[in-house]
Design a protein that fits this description.
alpha+beta; 13% strand
Length: 520
Amino acid sequence: MIRNWVRSVAKRAAPVPVQSSMTMHDLFGVRSAAGVNVTPAESLSVATVQACVSLIARSLASVPLVLYRRTADGGREPAEDHPLFPILHDLSNPLQTAFDVRQQLFVSVLLYGNGYAEIEWGEDGYPRALWPLAPDDVTLYQNPDRSLLYRVQEGTGVRWLPSWRATAGLLGMSPLRAANAVGLAMATEEFGARFFSQGARPGYILSHPGQLSDKAFQRLQNSWNDSAASSHKTKIVEEGIKVEKTGVAPDEAQFLETRAFQVAEICRIFNVSPGLVGAAETQTYASAEQDMIRFRELTLGPWAKNHRAAIQRDMLTDDERQDYFVQYKLSSLQATDLLTRYQAHQVALLTGFATQNEVRALEDMNPVEGGDDLWRPLNMGVTGQPDPAAVDASGDMSNDNDADEEQAGENGQRSTVNGQLSTEETPGKSEISALLDAWVGDVRQRLIARVVNDVRQGGAKALRNGGRLALQEWGEEHMHDWRTAGDAMLASVPGADAGAVGEWVTSAYQAAVKELIANE
């Protein structure tokens, strides 16, 4: 009885292996319907798998991962004095940068379903380093109190890490469980390699009406199974031998179509648009931008949120989580052309959304004196409060500006002359008016330059091929496009008169055509 009781207590106290996503299937491969074993290592031989894994892992590793401290006013500031900050942002351990460690962790997650890292704690109770672990060397156990225990195989030895010494959590599932998609890609790639290694020719059967002697058989076999260098040369057979082709030609087996389809299938597994991994047959400039937005928000976003939550759980104490949090700055991947980026900066500045120094920081420029002040449009204010510019020193509302306000119109918009913002403003508005005038002038200049350039190229071609009538028809076709482009550029300028775009386009077109005909 005592022996049975001790045995039952010991059994209850022993850690229980957790069913791992790294099962025997993952170690030795999932047998796909195509007859190929799909393992994490073998799957990297498929270019699309390697491209998807590399794209996601490198993108997340390159994004700044910052530890922030909450401030009293509800804001945040980088906690550069915390020991965890350099581990996440600069060096994760003495041998590896933060980029290297994060890239290795995400590669492990994408191929094996799990990414493990050992936390090295200092004597002061703060993390000192982060060491990645190979996922196929780690087995997860759960104690009776539901705490986790990690068994790490190191050569012939074994180490046991408690939950506070590792960051991973419970187990995930490898995307490669969709083995048929990857297996078919591996099978078609292997078929193509074997096909070309055999001189890009199918197999043949040589039929003889009688029985060949051993010497004749050997001579025929040697002459037929020549090297690949002579595989496309004419073969001569003797003694009434009949040649029959076996196998299926790659085009008949839809070889290329199958490979192209498997690229899309594998991209679905990793939630990556095919255009981002080089399959850009149907991609346009507009779709490429949308693909990048979807990739950042729908692919990288969930992975980043999962990782930051694991870091906060495993590397910050309960008290620290009240004051600190970790954030991926995915906005650093918001890349666009120079003109669009600068226009966005202008909108942010003129609407009081960002300061000059914040904009300069985004462009990797040093701050300037006075660049931390937020600008506010003077034609806007808080609802229910009077305009400070309309109140005199005694606190009474001034009636002197009634006519000016009526002329400005409802919502405080300024009158315009030929699309240019009026400079007849109250003294406090002169600086912003000058900025807006310069903005409108820049739009007008760029639109005119586009019209002139199109006339010099497309208009000149139409004139050479069909004369002035063809030039006139060409101009009528492009007039709408120019006006639409001008309206889009001017729409972001507060208070600008969009009706001036038509006049700009017409005058620029007429001047360019006149010059073109004069130089004919």
